[in-house]
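Sharing a chain and its predicted structure for anyone who wants a worked example. Both blocks are below, sequence first, tokens second.
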Amino acid sequence: MGMSIACQDVGNSAMSTPMRQDRAFTLLELMAVLGLASIIGFICLHEFRPLSDPLRNGTAEVIAFMKQARAKAISTTSAYTVQPLSATRIGTVYASFCSDTETTADNSMVLDLPQGISLSDTDWSVCFSSRGLPDANVVIPLSAVRGGTNWIEVFLGGAVKEVPEPE
């Protein structure tokens, strides 16, 4: 008596091969990612463009230099005079008072303007008293070789900022 058992493969074909899921990007997902990346890139490019403008950089450097000279005058209780050393270099000297004729150069406070930027007028100086007040209202023009001019004004109250073209 022989019994035979027949094995039937009923519905096991799905179990024998693992379920396959697609792990690729769809065209829509790829376009969305590229679109977002290009928008972010454009914003970054637009925001960092002013950093490559030598005239704007030079203007910001001169303003910061003036503010630093004013702060040094206040902190040392000395009178600091800012004056052009050449068309591309600004330096400082100090004394007890702005009216003193004997001054000492402060070699730690010298500013070289960025390449291509120069002072249009080198016939100026401004002295910050020990209280940080300048002795005169001064307008300093900066010019770029590629064209364009910015003006920096030192106000009698001690403020320093970029101003529109004086009339």
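Comments welcome. The radius of gyration is 35 Å.
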